[in-house]
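Anyone up for a design puzzle?
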């Protein structure tokens, strides 16, 4: 009986449709659908807020006040972490924060969180890695390469591995935490489907809301810290 119920636990990525594009097979999965819904939702939210901002005659609505508060909090977070260089990265960090937050919370709507797919978190880690190395070469010039041999030349392999490991550590941390929550909730609903009605909501509050918000903050914070480390304090 337990084996049958365990088989009902579903936390895998499913192929919804197989497409043939230019002779190549492309699979439309649950991750793609979740990403599309989240991106469309964020775009619609941005358009609605934009319309509210254009309405200068009426009093600010609750949505406008909430969005202004969110923007101020995100700007404050970026400024406190990146200092003078915050202006260049406020928009990117803000969009990254909202995307990750909505992705991590999408499990509450019955979607499979896109961040539980390593194909989503790894590209985000690569983007952060590119920004880190771009600023490293831009501000430190040749020092970006010579620093790999400091404090002693034979430490070069360790320093190089430390640089290359950044996108993997960032992406795996986010992926592992979100996937673990997805797996646990799937097991609970699969194994205890006969009795799991209202009480799993408490677990959703932790795995989707609390843990999702924490992982969003950690990913963005580490991104800002790693980039700031490559930028001189005077810049």
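Challenge accepted. My sequence:
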């Amino acid at each position: 009986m337990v084996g049958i119920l365990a088989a009902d636990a579903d936390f895998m990525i499913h192929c919804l449709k197989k497409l043939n594009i230019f002779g190549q097979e492309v699979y439309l999965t649950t991750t793609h659908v979740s990403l599309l819904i989240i991106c469309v939702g964020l775009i619609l939210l941005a358009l609605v807020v934009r319309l509210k901002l254009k309405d200068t005659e009426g009093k600010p609505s609750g949505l406008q006040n909430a969005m202004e508060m969110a923007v101020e909090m995100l700007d404050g977070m970026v400024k406190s972490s990146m200092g003078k260089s915050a202006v260049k990265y406020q928009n990117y960090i803000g969009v990254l924060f909202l995307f990750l937050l909505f992705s991590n919370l999408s499990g509450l709507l019955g979607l499979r969180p896109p961040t539980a797919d390593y194909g989503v978190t790894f590209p985000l880690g690569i983007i952060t890695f590119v920004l880190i190395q771009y600023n490293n070469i831009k501000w430190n010039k040749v020092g970006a390469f010579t620093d790999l041999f400091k404090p002693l030349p034979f430490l070069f392999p360790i320093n190089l591995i430390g640089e290359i490991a950044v996108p993997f550590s960032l992406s795996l941390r986010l992926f592992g935490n979100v996937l673990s929550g997805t797996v646990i909730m799937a097991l609970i609903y699969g194994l205890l489907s006969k009795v799991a009605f209202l009480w799993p909501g408490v677990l959703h509050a932790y795995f989707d809301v609390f843990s999702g918000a924490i992982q969003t903050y950690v990913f963005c914070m580490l991104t800002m810290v790693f980039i700031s480390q490559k930028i001189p304090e005077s810049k």
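A detail worth pointing out: The chain has a mean pLDDT of 84.
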